[in-house]
Amino acid sequence: MEIISLLALGVVAGILAGLLGVGGGIVIVPVLVWIFSHGNDVPALHLMHIAIGTSLTTIVFTSLSSIRAHHQHGAIQWDLFKRLTPSIIVGAFMGALVADMIPSHGLHLFFSCFLLLAAIQMGIGKQPVPSQQLPKGFKLGIAGFLIGKISSLVGIGGGSLVVPYLSWSNIPMRQAVATSAATGFPIAISSMLGFIIMGWDAEQLPAWSTGYVYWAAVIAIVPTSLLCAPLGAKLAHTVPVKLLKRFFAVFLIFVGLKMLSMALTS
Questions:
Q1: 120 near 26, Cβ under 8 Å?
Q2: How far is residue 103's CA from residue 263's CA, in Å, rounded to a whole number?
C-alpha cells in the first residue's frame, strides 16, 4: 500500500505541477508526512526531516525536465540565474544545517504555517506589483540566500518565493516563472546534499535511506511525476486553471490546518 501511495503521489504531483504550476514539494511533503506517520519504517523523531529531504531529492530530477522545457522557449534569464545561484546554494545548504538542529515537530509547525501562507497567496491569485528594479551585488545575494534557506527548510524548489520576488523586481512573469524553474535545481541539489550529510549519523533511519533522503520513496515518485507533468500541462489549455487554483488553495488550507493541529499536539 505504501508503494501504491507513493506512485499515486508522483502522478498527482506531476499533474498539478503541469496544470497549476505549483512546485512538487508543496504537495509531496504533506503526503509523505501522512504516509510515513501511518507506517512503521520512519521514526517520528526524523519524520519531517526525511519528508523534506526526500521531497527536495525528487525536485533534483523533476526540475531538469522543467528547465529543458523553459529553455526550449528561450524564457530563462541565464545571466540572472548565474547571479542568484551562488547565494541560493549557500542558503539551501544552510537551511539543511538549520533543519537538522530543529526537532521534527518544529519543522512540522514551520511547514504548516508556510503552507497556509502559500495557499492564501494562490487563492488570491495576485503577484506583487512591480515596484523596483532587481538589486545587484550584496542585496541580490541576501535575497538568494533567504530564498535558498527557506526553500530548504520546507522542501520546495523555491517557485513560491522566486516568482513573486522577480515579479516585484520588474521581471516579466513568463521569464520570472522560467528562471524560477531553473533555480529549483541548485536549491534541490544543495539541499539534498545538506540533508544527506546532516542525517548521515542519525539513528533509526529506515532501510534504503542515505541520511534524511529515503530513496525508496524517491524511486517511486520521480518516474510517475515526470510522466504525468506533460499531461497536466496539456490539461492547462482545456480546463479553467484560475478556478482550479482557488479550489486547490482551499484544499491546501485544510491540509495546512490539519498539519498545524498535528504539530501543536505532537
A1: no
A2: 11
The pLDDT tens digits for 1-33 are 678 888 888 888 888 776 666 667 888 999 899
Cβ-based neighbours of 265, under 8 Å, separated by 6 or more = none
**What phi and psi values does residue 213 have, to the nearest 5 degrees?**
-105, 120
Domain boundaries, position 128 = 2-265
87 near 138, Cβ under 8 Å? no
**For the chain, what is the domain count?**
1
pTM score, two decimals?
0.90
| Element (DSSP H or E) covering residue 66 | helix 47-72
> Which grid coordinates are listed for 45?
523523531
- d(CA 14, CA 22) in angstroms, rounded, equals 10
Q: Go through 9-32 and write b for each residue having 16 or more CB atoms within 10 A of its CB, e for each that does not.
A: bbbbbbbbbbbbbbbbbbbbbbbb
- Residue type at 60? V
The predicted-structure confidence for 56-69, as pLDDT tens digits, reads as follows 999 888 888 888 87
What DSSP designation does 204 have? S
